[in-house]
Amino acid sequence: xxxxxxxxxxxxxxxxxxxxxxxxxxxxxxxxxxxxxxxxxxxxxxxxxxxxxxxxxxxxxxxxxxxxxxxxxxxxxxxxxxxxxxxxxxxxxxxxxxxxxxxxxxxxxxxxxxxxxxxxxxxxxxxxxxxxxxxxxxxxxxxxxxxxxxxxxxxxxxxxxxxxxxxxxxxxxxxxxxxxxxxxxxxxxxxxxxxxxxxxxxxxxxxxxxxxxxxxxxxxxxxxxxxxxxxxxxxxxxxxxxxxxxxxxxxxxxxxxxxxxxxxxxxxxxxxxxxxxxxxxxxxxxxxxxxxxxxxxxxxxxxxxxxxxxxx
Length: 312
Description:
By secondary structure, the chain is an alpha/beta fold. The protein contains seven helices and 15 strands. Strands 6, 7, 8, 10, 11 and 12 form a six-stranded antiparallel beta sheet that branches. A hairpin with a 7-residue loop joins β13 (269-277) and β14 (285-294). The model has no long low-confidence stretch (mean pLDDT 95).
């Protein structure tokens, strides 16, 4: 747990974005805050120093005790600490603002949708939610660097067939630093507005053309997998992004490998179907299906699913 907190507190890009969002939103002497997944209490402590009237910090485990000690040592007295998972809390608020920094490398992996949906009961009508929106992006990866790092089972040698183990390994998602030159034509595949009611099951279909709109025309290239990242609008005008072109944070991108590279010729289309399930009872599951199309016919297809990536 403290290793995660160390990464969070050492992330200057993240800290500055949340500082600016709070500075824009906190009204001195008036704003009350509920901080869901509060960790060390850093964000509530910032809000307190900005003049927030009261902060309720909700988190479970030993970190809650650390947060209490940090509040005392910093002379912060307008905080209440609840050492429970937010979904087990029966009474908190109603507050003017909810802060829920429960974002992962894959944006939804910490079950942020269901947790925020439940925690809305702690908010006053029309209350502010930080983050307010999340956009998710996907791009084909045309470099084999990451695939070579991951797909090692076929080259074990010693006259051993490791096919089954290889397929388990590739039916998984990987946290990787993906370089801008390794991707083509990023597209938004999902958007979540936390003011609305949202489902933890997200589905999308995305298509790339090879006629110059999404990739250089007249060029043959291979797609080895897909990169995922996100942009969070904390409050209007203040964003935090984890893409390959963005300032680096402690978050990295997600790499979705393929069983085999997909060679794409001019005139063909690449179609990706994504299904994300981050319901609390599931925790996290992603599936991705890739089809190469030409003249409306399927040239090749492959489907991967994290359900097949677990040892049972």
